[in-house]
Each structure stands twice: as C-alpha cells, then as structure tokens.
Amino acid sequence: MTAAQPSHAPHTSVPDAPHPLDNPALASLAGPHAHFAERRGRVLRYPVDVSPWLALPDDPDARDWADVAALAGPGTELALAASEAVAPDGWESTFHVEGVQLVDDGIRAAHDPEAVRLGPDDVPEMLDLVARTRPGPFLPRTVEMGTYLGIRRGGALVAMAGERLRPPGYTEISAVCTDPDFRGQGLGGRLVLAVSAGIRERGEIPILHTGAQNTGAIRLYENLGFRLRKYTAFVGLRVPEWMTGEPGQPSAPVPVSS
C-alpha cells in the first residue's frame, strides 16, 4: 500500500499593490488629501484654487475620460502630475514636461532657526515670490496643502519651500524658490531640509519632483541626500469643446484609505 501523495492547490499569484509614488496625485486624493477631493467616477482632482492636478486611475478607459470632461468642462485645460496616462485622439496637448521623481535616501533633515511658518496671511507675498521665480504651480489656496516655511530679510519674504502632494507614507516638497537677489546663500537647501524635518517627524518620507532638464536643482537635491527613483512626466491637456461627458457621480469627498 502506497502512501497518499499530498495534493497541492494550483499556484495563483497575487498582483502587487500599486506603489503610491507611481500615481502620486491619485494616492494623495484617495488618502491624506481626501478632504480636498472633487470626484466623478474614478477621476479625482483638487479644487482649482488649491492645485491644478487632476488624477486618473492607472488604467483609464473611455468612461474615465468622459468623466474628466464632465468634471473639468469642455475646452478646459487640465494638468496631470507624474502620470503615465495617454489621452484619446482629439485631446489637445498643451504642455509636456519630462520630469524626475526623487526620494529621501538619507538626507540631513534639520529644523532651521531662521525659517518661519507661512500661512494664509502670507499668500500675497508668496504669490509675488512665485511669480518672480516660477518654481511650479502655486495658487491662492496651495498653502492649505501642508506646511510652508519661509526666510525673511528686512521683513521681506526672500525664500520659501513647502508641502504639496501627500501619497500615503510620503510628502512631496514643492515651491522651493529664492529671490534672485538672495541666491547663492543656500537658503533653498536649508528650507528643503527644514521642511523634511517636519515630514520625518510625522513618520513620512520626503519626496521631490523637478524637471529632468533642471540639472542644477537635481544636483542640489542629490547633494542633500535625495536619490532618483524614476523618470516621469507632467502633462497638460485641453478637453475637446465637443466633449461634455455623461452624467455621473456628483463631486464628493473620497474616503481616506486605511
């Protein structure tokens, strides 16, 4: 009599969960920034006075693009952050910026005694500094996305940096800029390290995005202790005038992911 052979269930692989940094705007709006989220179907976006970024699922289909049109409106320009989505035929491309995503790899995060917390009352000065230095999108309510720190000289705001996207477990550092008259003093690097210190204290990991052609900024961030994680792109699209979408879910907050 032979012993029974053990039976084995057929092997089934479980697909890996998507990494939050692979679609950071979606991960933010479905997670820590859910209180900002406007949605239709699987499409999410920030209020237009907070951030320009709209987020698509990883596998957008025709219904998702119809929901984009319904949410944004025909003829509206929209922006996709660090997205791999390819728009259907008929959608106008308004910009395409090759970028890089950098992640903390042992940065020397440290609070800065000269850095001050910036808030809503500082927005006019912040908008003025951004207009002169063009570090990337910054709108009247962007300051609500997280902590913003600045350095003042003679009472005037001359440098700032702050927090933008918040995929679970991570926070993006953004709006790093310095008045041209005060460059070369290391103020931007100091503020990046100071913002990073606050992120680390929450148990999160600092990340950054910048243009792939901005080699000076990339070199600075790598010297501070960031490393390249991946190449990506920032894309602007215009909704076709003829496309109005279909009735879908009304805009509503998205529950925070666990």
TrEMBL record:
GO molecular function per UniProt: acyltransferase activity
Region feature (Disordered) = 1-27
Q: What is its EC number?
A: 2.3.1.-
Domain (N-acetyltransferase) spans 113-246
Keywords (alphabetical) are: Acyltransferase, Transferase
Which segments cross the bilayer?
Answer: none
PANTHER family referenced in this protein's UniProt entry, alphabetically: ACETYLTRANSFERASE, N-ACETYLTRANSFERASE DOMAIN-CONTAINING PROTEIN
Q: Provide the protein name.
A: GNAT family N-acetyltransferase
Please give the organism: Streptomyces monticola
